[in-house]
Amino acid sequence: MAFYRSQVLVCGGTGCTSSDSMKILEKFKEEVKKHNIENEIEIVRTGCFGLCELGPVVIVYPEGAFYSRVQIADVEEIVAEHLVKGRPVTRLLYTETIDEGRIKSLNETGFYKKQERIALRNCGVIDPENIDEYIAFDGYKALAKVLTTMTPEQVIEEVKKSGLRGRGGGGFPTGLKWELTAKSKADQKYVVCNADEGDPGAFMDRSILEGDPHSVLEAMTIAGYAIGANQGYIYVRAEYPIAVQRLKVAIKQAREYGLLGKNIFGTDFSFDIEIRLGAGAFVCGEETALMNSIEGRRGMPNPKPPFPAQSGLWEKPTLINNVETYANIPQIIVRGGEWFASKGTEKSKGTKVFALGGKITNTGLVEVPMGITLREVIYEIGGGIPNGKKFKAVQTGGPSGGCLTAEHLDTPIEYDTLTALGSMMGSGGMIVMDEDTCMVDVARFYLDFTRDESCGKCTPCRIGTKRMLEILDRIVEGKGTLEDLDKLEELGKQIKAASLCGLGQTAPNPVLSTLKHFRDEYIAHVVDKKCPAGVCQALLQYTIIEEKCKGCSLCARQCPVNAISGQVKSPFKIDQDKCIKCGACLDKCPFKAIVKK
Amino acid sequence: MNQQNCCCCGGNHVDERLEKVMKVIEEHKTVKGGLIPVLHEIQDTYGYLPEDILKIVSKELDIPMAEIFGVASFYSYFSLEPKGEHIIRVCLGTACYVKGAQGLIDRLSKELNVEVGKTTEDGKFTLEATRCLGACGLAPVMVIGEKVYGRITPDDIPNILKEYQDK
């Protein structure tokens, strides 16, 4: 085995790869070779470090120097100065990690200090395409323990003891699901991993698959042993090419090592896994729809019961869990259910991964103990709202969730507290919105999404979401009435009560929660015909500020409907009746004399 | 891509792509639920799902055309029509939306004179609005082919398009 004096970790997650981190990696290899130190320095491509905002990210150990927004042109300097001469290039280091010239550990920075990584423990640490690195970090130790020292009942007992609940949204107790599937009698059973991460703004499952694919394979194999299945399927989005590729590599390596396939660890237990690609249908995240899709059909949900635990894939008992749920399993087995249950709160045990996005300083992926407050996540870890703007709301749970306001910032994050406030945990997307975001527009955005993704099988969802969207369209165009708000509420309640699957049952949530918490904004749209955030085009007016206008006539020449008139060298005017609010004048005015409000 | 389109509308059918697809169909005859993996392969190979090829799938896998059409039209990843040489996908996930992705779409639509979901008359570009790509750290995000453009504004668009227009 080779020993290196220094390791250079280059993030190979989707965010950093999109900003050319793989070219940066190649450049490092090239430069290291140029200096003849390729036997001393190891260059490793890892999974996501989490702090996507600062990508592309490179970390150099043993110092733990965190280089942010690295450009290809910077690599030469990092190699020559840091790796050859031992002088970190301070100019490129993440400013939070520098303290009076000394490099602080990442765990001392605001972003990482309050995090506790269980599901993400290997992401950004190991090379995801090297099974040996996974094994070196206790990989497949849990599987060995399970197959050689535990009965299936003991495995299920351990998972139950951990208090782990489904991380895909619903929060169903995982151990109970395993037990129910184990108790179903059948000649064939299946284990399925739901990696159809469809919530816009959530990317934790993708990052786990990209950064630590073996943890999911190991957990699925353990699940297979526990419930008595020998075949697993991973249903992953086709939109995640890097994740698919790493899963393929991981499955191949696991087979070569005898960790998948026949007689694993020399026992009687055999288990194998196949990948199935999604094809761009959000509803396939619903478990019965997902199974229909694996069977090669239109991904439409079935009524429950029967539950998958009794009759799932090809009408056989099927255990279906989400990626993040599986990623917790190996550690629960190795360190014990009680260890996991000691974290978090009474009803929500362990940790949860959140994807921070939107108007927040540190966009990225964080894993925190359950029970932490929204304020800690948004301000201490997320670094607050950029550009001195005011916090307005945070959306959790994606299209199924709702918006929470400033008064909820001190709410502890748990499954039940979020549901009680009209939102939900969901898969863990957290989109922060500031004063420039229009809540009516956001509600309309989500409903447009669910209406588009509704599979059409049941009427309340297919037609109800369409009607709700029509009302919202009217409101943002300034044609809404106060009655419309009552209609939205009434319709929303009915869709929730009458829809067949989770998609329809939660689709009205973004509208209902914004109606509850931001009713003033809706009223401003329907009564005053104004959009307070200045987003809804139809409710804005373009006007020329007389004092700033030099009378150059450029705007009048740009206007496609001849709504602007005036004498050259004296202020121009916009005829509001003619104006179609295209904004062409505002873009062109060299004196910034045109405003929209 | 334009050249590719010719061969599946009646022209020269003895090509590598057909052989590749036939091999995949053969491999999936015994695979449970093999239709969707086969459609993926055809979509990747031809850029869309040509009707001629679907007829072969129907015969070989013994699945009625109606059912294949039902599956193909259900999933947004599959297309029954040929697409442009460069596919522009603008992410409309929430993180991108609140950071102004709609402005990117409007600008692209204006610059290329094409509606969302359609292809330009010269067959150069197809403009698509896509679901969350998971690159939320780079919001707003646009992808042309495989190349990702992150943290962009509508004013960056004319310059980016130039790279592709001359090719």
TrEMBL record, chain A:
<protein>
    <submittedName>
        <fullName>NAD(P)-dependent iron-only hydrogenase diaphorase component flavoprotein</fullName>
    </submittedName>
</protein>
<dbReference type="InterPro" id="IPR036249">
    <property type="entry name" value="Thioredoxin-like_sf"/>
</dbReference>
<dbReference type="InterPro" id="IPR017896">
    <property type="entry name" value="4Fe4S_Fe-S-bd"/>
</dbReference>
<feature type="domain" description="4Fe-4S ferredoxin-type">
    <location>
        <begin position="570"/>
        <end position="597"/>
    </location>
</feature>
<dbReference type="GO" id="GO:0051539">
    <property type="term" value="F:4 iron, 4 sulfur cluster binding"/>
</dbReference>
<dbReference type="InterPro" id="IPR037207">
    <property type="entry name" value="Nuop51_4Fe4S-bd_sf"/>
</dbReference>
<dbReference type="InterPro" id="IPR011538">
    <property type="entry name" value="Nuo51_FMN-bd"/>
</dbReference>
<dbReference type="InterPro" id="IPR037225">
    <property type="entry name" value="Nuo51_FMN-bd_sf"/>
</dbReference>
<feature type="domain" description="4Fe-4S ferredoxin-type">
    <location>
        <begin position="540"/>
        <end position="569"/>
    </location>
</feature>
<keyword id="KW-0479">Metal-binding</keyword>
<dbReference type="Pfam" id="PF01257">
    <property type="entry name" value="2Fe-2S_thioredx"/>
</dbReference>
<keyword id="KW-0411">Iron-sulfur</keyword>
<dbReference type="GO" id="GO:0046872">
    <property type="term" value="F:metal ion binding"/>
</dbReference>
<dbReference type="Pfam" id="PF01512">
    <property type="entry name" value="Complex1_51K"/>
</dbReference>
<dbReference type="InterPro" id="IPR019554">
    <property type="entry name" value="Soluble_ligand-bd"/>
</dbReference>
<dbReference type="Pfam" id="PF10589">
    <property type="entry name" value="NADH_4Fe-4S"/>
</dbReference>
<dbReference type="InterPro" id="IPR019575">
    <property type="entry name" value="Nuop51_4Fe4S-bd"/>
</dbReference>
<dbReference type="Pfam" id="PF10531">
    <property type="entry name" value="SLBB"/>
</dbReference>
<keyword id="KW-0408">Iron</keyword>
<keyword id="KW-0004">4Fe-4S</keyword>
<dbReference type="InterPro" id="IPR017900">
    <property type="entry name" value="4Fe4S_Fe_S_CS"/>
</dbReference>
<dbReference type="GO" id="GO:0010181">
    <property type="term" value="F:FMN binding"/>
</dbReference>
From TrEMBL, chain B:
<protein>
    <submittedName>
        <fullName>NADH-quinone oxidoreductase subunit E</fullName>
    </submittedName>
</protein>
<keyword id="KW-0408">Iron</keyword>
<dbReference type="Pfam" id="PF01257">
    <property type="entry name" value="2Fe-2S_thioredx"/>
</dbReference>
<dbReference type="InterPro" id="IPR041921">
    <property type="entry name" value="NuoE_N"/>
</dbReference>
<dbReference type="GO" id="GO:0046872">
    <property type="term" value="F:metal ion binding"/>
</dbReference>
<feature type="binding site">
    <location>
        <position position="136"/>
    </location>
    <ligand>
        <name>[2Fe-2S] cluster</name>
    </ligand>
</feature>
<keyword id="KW-0479">Metal-binding</keyword>
<feature type="binding site">
    <location>
        <position position="132"/>
    </location>
    <ligand>
        <name>[2Fe-2S] cluster</name>
    </ligand>
</feature>
<dbReference type="GO" id="GO:0051537">
    <property type="term" value="F:2 iron, 2 sulfur cluster binding"/>
</dbReference>
<feature type="binding site">
    <location>
        <position position="91"/>
    </location>
    <ligand>
        <name>[2Fe-2S] cluster</name>
    </ligand>
</feature>
<dbReference type="InterPro" id="IPR036249">
    <property type="entry name" value="Thioredoxin-like_sf"/>
</dbReference>
<keyword id="KW-0411">Iron-sulfur</keyword>
<dbReference type="InterPro" id="IPR028431">
    <property type="entry name" value="NADP_DH_HndA-like"/>
</dbReference>
<feature type="binding site">
    <location>
        <position position="96"/>
    </location>
    <ligand>
        <name>[2Fe-2S] cluster</name>
    </ligand>
</feature>
<keyword id="KW-0001">2Fe-2S</keyword>
<dbReference type="InterPro" id="IPR002023">
    <property type="entry name" value="NuoE-like"/>
</dbReference>
<dbReference type="InterPro" id="IPR042128">
    <property type="entry name" value="NuoE_dom"/>
</dbReference>
<dbReference type="GO" id="GO:0016491">
    <property type="term" value="F:oxidoreductase activity"/>
</dbReference>
<comment type="similarity">
    <text>Belongs to the complex I 24 kDa subunit family.</text>
</comment>
